[in-house]
Protein: DDE Tnp4 domain-containing protein
Amino acid sequence: MKQEACRKDVERAFGALQSRFAIVAGPVRFWNKDVLHDIITTCIILHNMIIEDERNLTGPIQVAREVPSPDVELVVDENTQFQEFIARHKQIRNQDAHIALRNALIEHLWDQYTNSNV
Structure:
């Protein structure tokens, strides 16, 4: 009778692990026993960490410290800042600059790839 209760506990535990971790649900015939031991141990530790983390979700939220108010910069001349914004936006959207940066990136990656495989 005690053996059956233990078997049910093990089946329930593996069912919980299989529902959470796909690697435990797959076939294991061709795995090394040491690797299986490491996988199961890791899954059990992760499962326990998840349960422990979820356990405290119902408690009240405690604020550890107060956040200082952010420094706000007052705008004196809105037109100048808007013009700067437009200039930066045009610079970002510049197609020639985009093509030049793209080509430089391609050349850099090509040089890295060819130098590493020589």
Summary: The chain has two domains: 2-57, 78-116. The chain has a mean pLDDT of 79.
